[in-house]
């Protein structure tokens, strides 16, 4: 999949979560999706979507992104300009904000894709 398409799918992931569009969220993920977070690991698309719908401590949050970067399979992170079918990961840097716009945490999410679908996200927070 080309770099711009991966970036669009990454943005669509956050849009789906922030917009409570769980059908859209599910459509972006592989059935064997894994989300590795500092507080837990969630295995499986259905379990993850259920957690996002029913298990999150706060559901009225937003995820403004400060940067999106593509990582090549055999090189360091590069800028988002241009296409490259070897892109394996997208790295998103952003902030989780509460309903009042207050920062809860900063994060970096590392997305791994299988074809055009998100196979894994590793989340790092501070």
Topology:
Layout: H1 3-18, H2 22-28, E1 29-36, E2 41-43, H3 45-55, E3 65-72, E4 77-78, E5 87-97, E6 103-114, E7 117-125
Parallel strand pairs: 1-7
Antiparallel strand pairs: 1-2, 3-4, 3-5, 5-6, 6-7
Helix pairs in contact: 1-2
Shape, per Cα inertia axes: globular
Widest sheet: strand order? 2-1-7-6-5-3-4
Helical content band: 25-40%
The fraction of residues assigned to DSSP E strands is 35-45%
Gyration radius from CA atoms, angstroms = 14 Å
Order of helices and strands: HHEEHEEEEE
What profile does the largest beta sheet have?
A: 7 strands, mixed
Q: What are the defining features of this structure?
A:
alpha+beta; about 130 residues
What does this protein look like?
The protein has 126 residues and is α+β, with helices and mostly antiparallel strands. It contains three helices and seven strands. Strands 2-1-7-6-5-3-4 form a seven-stranded mixed sheet. A hairpin with a 5-residue loop joins strand 5 and strand 6. 16% of the residues are buried.
Short description:
The protein has a seven-stranded mixed sheet. Helix content is 27%, strand content 42%.
């Amino acid at each position: 999949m080309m770099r711009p398409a991966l970036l669009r799918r990454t943005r669509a992931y956050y849009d789906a979560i922030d917009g409570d569009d769980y059908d859209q969220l599910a459509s972006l993920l592989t059935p064997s999706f894994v989300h590795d977070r500092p507080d837990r690991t969630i295995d499986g698309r259905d379990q993850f979507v259920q957690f996002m719908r029913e298990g999150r401590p706060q559901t009225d949050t937003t995820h403004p992104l400060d940067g999106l970067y593509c990582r090549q399979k055999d090189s360091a992170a590069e800028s988002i300009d241009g296409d490259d079918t070897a892109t394996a990961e997208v790295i998103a840097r952003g902030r989780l904000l509460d309903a009042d716009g207050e920062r809860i945490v900063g994060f970096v999410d590392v997305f791994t894709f299988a074809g055009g679908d998100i196979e894994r996200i590793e989340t790092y927070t501070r």
